[in-house]
C-alpha cells in the first residue's frame, strides 16, 4: 500500500473527502518529521514510537573493489512497534 492508497482507505473509513484525508495525512507525516528533526521522540499509544538513533562511525567495504572505507557517524530514523500493534499484526 502506498501513500495515496492509505489516504483513500482512511477516507473510506472516516467518511471525510479524499482531499481532506490526504491533507491530514501529509500534516501528520510532516509533524512527525519535524519532531524527529528537532530531536524529539513521537509516541503514539497502542501504535508505536518514532525516534532518531545515532549510528557510530565504522569501517565498511566497497562491494565492487573490496577496498576499506570509513563510513561517518550518522543519525537514522527508527520505529518501534507498540504491543497492541504487534498483536494486531500477529
Structure, described:
The protein has three helices and five strands; from the N terminus they run H-H-E-E-E-E-E-H. With 90 residues, the chain is of the alpha+beta class. The chain has two domains: 1-40; 43-90, HU Protein, Chain A (Irregular), CATH 4.10.520.10. Helix 1 (3-14) packs across helix 2 (18-37). The mean pLDDT is 95.
Write a brief caption for the model:
The protein is of the alpha+beta class and 90 residues long. It has helices at residues 3-14, 18-37, 83-89; strands at residues 42-44, 48-55, 58-61, 68-71, 74-81. Strands 1-2-5 form a three-stranded antiparallel β-sheet.
Average pLDDT metric? 95
The arrangement of helices and strands along the chain is HHEEEEEH
Give the biggest sheet: 3 strands, antiparallel
Please state the CA-atom Rg, rounded to the nearest Å: 18 Å
Would you spell out the secondary-structure blueprint of this structure?
Elements: H1 3-14, H2 18-37, E1 42-44, E2 48-55, E3 58-61, E4 68-71, E5 74-81, H3 83-89
Antiparallel strand pairs: 1-2, 2-5, 3-4
Helix pairs in contact: 1-2
List keywords for this structure.
single chain; 90 residues; alpha+beta; HU Protein, Chain A; three-stranded antiparallel beta sheet; two-stranded antiparallel sheet; 43% helix
Amino acid at each position: 500500500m502506498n501513500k495515496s492508497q492509505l489516504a483513500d482507505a482512511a477516507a473510506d473509513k472516516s467518511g471525510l473527502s479524499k482531499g481532506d484525508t490526504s491533507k491530514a495525512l501529509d500534516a501528520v507525516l510532516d509533524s512527525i518529521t519535524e519532531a524527529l528533526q528537532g530531536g524529539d521522540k513521537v509516541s503514539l499509544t497502542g501504535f508505536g514510537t518514532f525516534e532518531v538513533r545515532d549510528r557510530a562511525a565504522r569501517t565498511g567495504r566497497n562491494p565492487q573493489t573490496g577496498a576499506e572505507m570509513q563510513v561517518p557517524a550518522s543519525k537514522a530514523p527508527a520505529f518501534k512497534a507498540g504491543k497492541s500493534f504487534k498483536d494486531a499484526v500477529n
